[in-house]
Task: inverse folding
């Protein structure tokens, strides 16, 4: 069985989001691609997608 998005966050490096300025991320996500955001903040593309997903729920 495949792991869902909640299950994948436990052991694959989601702690790398500690240094990300979320206010800045929200402002830049509207004008930048996922790849550009990942490069700028030094996080993976998967983390950018997950973060956008979480921010859109609020």
Result:
């Amino acid at each position: 069985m495949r792991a869902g998005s909640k299950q994948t966050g436990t052991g694959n490096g989601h702690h790398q989001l500690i240094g990300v300025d979320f206010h800045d991320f929200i402002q830049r996500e509207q004008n930048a691609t996922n790849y550009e955001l990942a490069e700028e903040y030094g996080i993976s593309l998967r983390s950018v997608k997950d973060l956008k997903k979480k921010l859109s729920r609020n």
